[in-house]
Amino acid sequence: MVNADKTRNFPASAQDKHYLVIIDNMMNLDMMYEATKLTGDPKYAKIATHQAEKSSDTHVRKDGTTYHVVNFDPKTGKALDFMTHQGYSDESAWSRGQAWGIYGYAQCALRTGRDDFRDTSRRLADVFLSLLPDSGVPEWDFRAPKPCPYDASAGTIAARGLQMLYQLLLPSDKSAAEEYLVRANKLVEDILRECGTPAATLDKDGKVNWGEGSWETLLQHSTINGNEKATRRLLDHGLVYADYYLMEFGNEAIKIERAKEA
């Protein structure tokens, strides 16, 4: 791996000297909490909580944006380097990384009941929403030069995180909870308007006609990696993350509406 702003390599052969942690890992911590629930062994939850605490101190910047990658000293745990791999630059604001943080910290708050995790998710969410362009669809990197390609996946992930903030805040601050739910719904509405794929049709010969652009995903216009130094730079394409979290959002939206009607 090579970070964006510095010509410095972190090869796999040097893992004894470098320990790279990505903000994306916040999405994996829920499995650790579930492992404790299933086994009764608290060690997994303790590891997850420690990771969330560490990332709050290192991946989250003072301005509420996030670093993609932090390089730690594997012996001391000291943060050595702050960088990106998929964003525009080491000090930019990669939108999907911000979304991973919103979702991940909300999940940790639901698992632990800790207000600091909830507040971290909320802080990241407020910054994410403040940086959205007029279209309402997140750009691949909020601080990249304009025009900048979209990343629909960042939007669907963030929207699902906003639903969790609604759930977390509803018992204590109904007004704030409802506002996050409104913003979540608006975010998905904007994504569907700007990025929705035309309906596919079936030709007489049995072949699928994917329509204009031949998109095979539910949503268009995601960007997996726009970094100019990436080995494989991919911008403006369909991405499974976008579709998956759109479905997860929709399922949760149904549950929320049913709960309101009960």
Description:
This protein has 262 residues and is mainly alpha-helical. It has one domain: Glycosyltransferase. 47% of the residues lie in helices and 6% in strands. It has 7 helices and 5 strands, in the order E-H-H-E-E-H-H-H-H-E-E-H. A 3-stranded antiparallel sheet has the order 1-2-3, with no helix packed on it. A hairpin with a 5-residue loop joins strand 4 and strand 5. Helix 5 runs parallel beside helix 7. The N terminus is likely disordered.
Quaternary state reads single chain
As for the number of domains, it is: 1
Helix content: 40-55%
Order of helical and strand elements = EHHEEHHHHEEH
Across the major sheet, the strand order is 1-2-3
How many DSSP helices?
7
Computed CA radius of gyration, to the nearest angstrom: 19 Å
What is the averaged pLDDT score? 93
InterPro entries: 6-hairpin_glycosidase_sf, 6hp_glycosidase-like_sf, UG_Glycosaminoglycan_Hydrolase
Keywords: Glycosidase, Hydrolase
Family: Belongs to the glycosyl hydrolase 88 family.
Protein name: Six-hairpin glycosidase-like protein
List the helices and strands and how they pair.
Blueprint: E1 19-22, H1 29-39, H2 43-58, E2 69-72, E3 79-83, H3 95-112, H4 115-130, H5 152-169, H6 174-195, E4 201-202, E5 208-209, H7 240-261
Antiparallel strand pairs: 1-2, 2-3, 4-5
